[in-house]
Design goal:
Helices cover 34% and strands 21% of the residues. The protein has helices at 30-38, 42-48, 85-100, 125-139, 168-192, 200-213, 224-230, 233-239, 293-308, 353-363, 380-386, 398-411, 444-453, 484-492, and strands spanning 2-6, 17-23, 59-63, 71-78, 106-110, 158-162, 217-222, 247-254, 263-273, 313-323, 335-337, 343-345, 371-376, 391-395, 415-417, 435-436, 461-465, 471-472, 478-479. The strands form 4 sheets. The protein has an 8-stranded mixed sheet with strand order 7-8-10-9-13-17-14-15, with helices on both faces. The chain has a 6-stranded mixed sheet with strand order 1-6-5-2-4-3, with helices on both faces. α4 (125-139) packs parallel to α5. The mean pLDDT is 97. The structure holds ligand BES, manganese (II) ion and zinc ion (ZN). Residues 270, 273, 291, 352-353 line the site of zinc ion.
């Protein structure tokens, strides 16, 4: 898809589909008024007759003749009370749905002059262009590489988005949105790839591939021998039962000054989670291919960073392993010594995410991080607590937690904070080791984060539990690309700080 930003009047854009916004009531955006004038009041008539309601995300496709465009798509943006970023996002999703598989080859989208009010500058033209870019890329995503029948090629090949100008700020915002969408799509590709293909070594290859595509990203992969030497016995206890060796994947982007501390992203990369000897029940176990969703999001954010090249340093660390039962698998009751020196009694081999992450959290100390944000499909309890709308957020630093919450709010990729109080720590007391890897049923998301916090004492750290947000189940099964928008917004808001 070819995307361009244009400040030409809509009448000068020779697209075969023009997209304009129609509010239910109230003042029209300028592009809608102009289109209506050119079409001799046709939009007004359609509204009067009830064909075009203006209801949020409603769409009406009108064939035209003898006009600069062969069709007009009228997208409803609702009543005044609907001027929210959420309603605006819905209208953009509806737009993408209408044009993605239709007859048009070139669509001109005039939706950046629709008023939006919300948190911080979400109504600014830059915020809207960012969102338009991201939603379009996100919605045009298809995953079909494993179907023998190829999808028919899409007719739509070019999108022109109209704006008040094409200066650097507007262009950058639009391009950042597109790059965020592409980052999400990489996340989705990795997540959706089946687990017989997407194993730790394959993930490592994807990192090498990203480095090849963007030479600003340097990749380094540690194998099991190197991890053993570093004392990462907790991480290695997870891959012990698998024929696939674990990998620690490190990607470095150095766009800032050499002495600037890096933002470190850590991802859980369990390419398949059977539970190990503490075997999971069979139902929907296929979805445990998404247990590398944290790693996939780290990849996605890195791709966005690599494409947009912000002046900052970002380091990504992915703990990749497959959790399988076998004669060499870790047993419940086994005790391992982590890289930090702390010993762990593994009472449930299905609580493996924390076991790989803890060694990664110790490893990243070597980067002297500005902050560390880890993300993981860590606990089923997080789905019980927050469902699929909010990512769980736990942190040892209030400012960092608030920055991430605000970024999620701005990006429409929200998180909700849970407490990390000391009172919960005792649930991890073990009779035989420094700690056990499970804390019982109460507050499962919190005790999982408590476990991680013991390895993240030396820096500002936040943990994102994306068990409910990384993928959708059921008919719409597939990776969501979350929480890439939140991460990108957070990172970019720290450029130059
Ligand atoms: N990957 C799972 C968590 C998960 C389960 C995410 C279902 C999304 C959907 C994780 O490794 C796991 O198995 N966690 C256990 C922890 C328990 C044994 C303390 C869980 O949540 O049941
Ligand atoms: Mn598990
Ligand atoms: Zn898991």
């Amino acid at each position: 898809m070819n995307f361009t930003l244009s400040s030409k009047p809509i009448t000068d854009i020779k697209a075969d589909c023009l997209v304009v916004a129609l509010p239910e009531k109230g003042t029209w955006p300028e592009s809608t008024t102009r289109a209506d004038e050119l079409l001799g009041g046709q939009i007004k008539t359609l509204q009067k007759n009830g064909d075009a309601t203006g209801k949020t995300a409603s769409t009406l496709l009108v064939p035209l003749e003898g006009q600069p465009w062969s069709r007009l798509l009228i997208v409803g943006t609702g009543a005044d009370k609907d001027r929210t970023p959420t309603a605006y996002r819905k209208a953009l999703i509806a737009t993408a749905g209408q044009i993605s598989d239709g007859p048009s080859k070139h669509a001109a989208i005039a939706l950046a002059d629709t008023p939006v009010t919300g948190p911080e500058a979400s109504g600014s033209e830059t915020a809207k262009l960012n969102l338009i870019g991201r939603i379009l890329e996100d919605q045009f995503y298809r995953f079909s590489g494993f179907k023998s029948e190829k999808l028919s090629t899409r007719k739509l090949a070019k999108i022109t988005v109209t704006a008040s100008g094409t200066g650097k700020a507007l262009k950058d915002a639009f391009n950042l949105g597109l790059a965020t969408g592409r980052g999400m799509n990489l996340t989705k590709d990795l997540g959706n790839t089946p687990p017989n293909v997407c194993h730790p070594s394959w993930l490592a290859e994807q990192a090498e591939k990203l480095s090849k595509e963007y030479d600003v990203v340097k990749t380094d992969v540690l194998d099991e021998k190197q991890m053993k030497k570093l004392g990462m016995n907790s991480l290695l206890s997870v891959s012990a039962g698998s024929a696939q060796p674990a990998k620690l994947i490190v990607m470095e982007y150095r766009g800032g000054k050499a002495d600037e501390k890096p933002y470190v992203l850590v991802g859980k990369g369990i390419t398949f989670d059977t539970g190990g000897i503490s075997l999971k029940p069979g139902e929907a176990m296929d979805e445990m291919k998404y247990d590398m969703g944290g790693a996939a999001a780290v990849f996605g954010a890195m791709r966005t960073v690599a494409e947009t090249k912000p002046k900052m340093n970002v380091v990504a660390v992915i703990a990749a392993a497959e959790n399988m039962p076998s004669g060499t698998a870790t047993r419940p009751g086994d005790i391992v010594t982590s890289m930090s020196g702390q010993t762990i009694e593994i009472l449930n081999t299905d609580a493996e995410g924390r076991l790989v992450l803890c060694d990664a959290l110790t490893y990243v100390k070597k980067f002297d991080p500005e902050v560390v944000v880890d993300m993981a499909t860590l606990t089923g309890a997080c789905i019980i607590a927050l469902g699929s709308h909010a990512t769980g957020l736990l942190s040892n630093n209030d400012a960092l937690a608030n920055d991430l919450l605000a970024a999620g709010e701005r990006a429409g990729d929200r998180a909700w904070r849970l407490p990390l109080w000391d009172e919960y720590q005792s649930q991890l007391d073990s009779n035989f080791a420094d700690m056990q890897n499970i804390g019982g049923r109460p507050a499962g998301t919190i005790t999982a984060a408590c476990f991680l916090s013991r390895f993240a004492k030396d820096y500002r750290w936040a943990h994102l539990d994306i068990a409910g947000t990384a993928w959708l189940s059921g008919k719409a099964k597939g990776s969501t690309g979350r929480p890439v928008p939140m991460l990108v917004d957070y990172l970019m808001s720290n450029v130059g700080k």
